[in-house]
Amino acid sequence: MRNQPKYTIFKNTTYAINGLVDMLKTETSFKIELVLAMILIPILLYIELDLISKLLMFITLMGVLIAEAINSAIERVVDLVTLEHHPMAGRAKDVGSTIVFLSICVFLAVWFINIINLI
Question: How do the pLDDT tens digits run along the chain, 119 residues long?
């Protein structure tokens, strides 16, 4: 049997908002990336690019935030299991960091290529 409450859109939305609020309170990297997104999204709306390019740029920007949320979830679960240093715990956290790193690399590549095309 799964430890999962009955699905309702209101409850699930509340869980998502609670998670977002908690990340805003506790995760410095997420806050920095969110501020970056809040700066870049208005810029994205005003630059002269085709819709597909703008969508790709937006998706990669959101991908960084999503990756950071996944990384935070991994870190919290690992910390729940053990606060002691364990090689497997470290490897799990490293993989979470790799997810963020790869999302930032994709974000930078897509934005760089599109900005170069503007010039």
Answer: 567 767 788 888 999 999 999 999 999 999 999 999 999 999 999 999 999 999 999 999 999 999 999 999 999 999 988 878 888 889 999 999 999 999 999 999 999 999 999 88
Q: Are 27 and 72 in contact (CB under 8 A)?
A: yes
Domain of 108, in residue numbers: 28-118
The DSSP H or E segment spanning 2 is none
Cβ neighbours of residue 24 under 8 Å, at least 6 residues apart? 30, 31, 34
**Residue 53: closest CA among 41, 44, 62:** 44
Which positions are catalytic?
68
CATH of the domain at 80: 1.10.287.3610
Q: Do the domain assignments include residue 16?
A: no
